[in-house]
Amino acid sequence: MIDLSGKAAIAGVFESPRRDAPRVHPFALQMDCILGALDDAGLTLKDVDGLCAASGDWAEGGSTMDVVELAEYIGIAPTYVNSTDVGGCSYILQAGQAAAAIATGLAEVVVISYAACPRWWPLSSPSFDPFVFPAGPGQYEIPYAPTLISTYGLFARRHMDLYGTTPEQLAQVAVTFREHAATNPDARLRKPITVDDVLASPMIASPLHRLDCCVVTDGGGAVVMTSRERARDLKKPPVHLVGYGAAVARTQNSQIPDDLTTPAALSGPRAFAMAGLTPGEIDVAQIYDAFTITPMLALEDLGFCGRGESGAFVADGNLTLGGRLPTNTDGGGLSSNHPGKRGIFTLIESVRQLRGEGPGVQVPDARIALAHGLGGTFCSAATAILAR
Amino acid sequence: MTAPTTSMTIPPVQDETSAPFWEAAREGRFLIQRCPETGRFQWYPRAHSIHAPHARPEWVEASGRGELLTYSVVHRGNQRGDPYVCALIRLEEGVTVFSRVEGVAEADLRAGLPLAVAFHQLDEAISLPVFRPRTPD
């Protein structure tokens, strides 16, 4: 078996500074990001032989053969593609699989790209949970009109009941990431907030308030990966993918485990094992934050704190600059950027942190970063560990 | 039978596997599945047993009684009417189902609340199970 750790590197990244892109088709935004990431790496479109995307969801512009549509739009004919869509963490999963493709010679330069424009997208939003149809397994749930946020509410409420987690602790997640967004010029929301502000904001789906929820932006980003050898001679210092894991678990609410374990409990240990590292060795983390409960469960499943302890872990300031695990240093999805599947931004900000280019707060001399995402409502998970 | 709430407007698509479930629901009975090899229950209904994948599960009538496991009150988002309660309910048979809880004030919702199934007739084909408070045994 090939030891994948360190075989591939991220050579270029780009996050669109846009948060509103009225009447811009998501493919156009993807092209901006792809060219930006290639330029960051010192490569051109001619170098690209691999393309990864998951652009078939609402407001992403693509259809059922999205990666083919996108390749055509860009004007390339890649010989390695991956359009596996497991939700928001798809791009982390694709990075791990791109590393395997690079290590085995299937591809040499792979672009992973994402954009969505939900703020103006003209085609109607599904009126039900967007992940399943009211047929097959979904026929027993969709008729009740569950919203995406209410499913996160089911998790949050049970976490409060099981472990004594408080609304104030949940709110602290949003407050912390807003602090990080304050100095990020591109962040959607930068004005500092307090725990009281979060609790006073309108209830969306209990126990989650409006400020427990991510921003909704038009946006995109891209990542360029290549071999360790080729990355060495490119424009920017390489960031190596040293650990990777992914897992999928469920889509239906009825299948939520009693103790709220998510597939991060599978993806995380695999990533740490490949990297030969432990959670205590991570200098900076980017953890998908669609809602305040989202990173909290990840912190537990990834082993940064014990089961049920994430509320106290957050309240103790561990996610802030200077804390044990500075997290979402660009403001995350709660304050900076969330077009719908923000996993790619966890890779991009990890690379920026390892290069000392963080736009929000910068962890001094960060050497090892963790990028973690989930898909759907804790349906899937992917974890990448990156190192200089 | 009670009138459907306005936000329950997306009818389930019945199929070969689920037809017995919806047929029973029209008669006010809540069916779940049991594995003929292991005797274990499963929810949601499938054409195979998740406990013995080559076995075809059998339908059994559930007690319809359970407890509230967790819930979220939808105040904003999808609803066209009043706030409604999305919930996971643990049935006495040990399986967890997703449904609505009705007839409970938001302030009175709590884990462990005893519930019993009731049915909303959406149309001639579909009666949708929901859960309402019951007197504890």
Automatic annotation (TrEMBL), chain A:
GO MF annotation list: acyltransferase activity
Protein name: Acetyl-CoA acetyltransferase
Transmembrane segments: none
InterPro entries: Thiolase-like (IPR016039), Thiolase_C_2 (IPR055140)
Keyword Transferase applies: yes
Highest taxon of the lineage: Bacteria
Domain Thiolase C-terminal residues, every copy: 245-388
Pfam family, one: Thiolase_C_1
The entry's keywords: Transferase
UniProtKB/TrEMBL annotation, chain B:
PANTHER family documented for this protein: BLR3430 PROTEIN
Pfam families per record: OB_ChsH2_C, zf-ChsH2
Sequence ranges assigned to domain ChsH2 C-terminal OB-fold in this UniProt record: 59-120
Protein name: DNA-binding protein
SUPFAM superfamilies linked: Nucleic acid-binding proteins
Domain ChsH2 rubredoxin-like zinc ribbon: 22-48
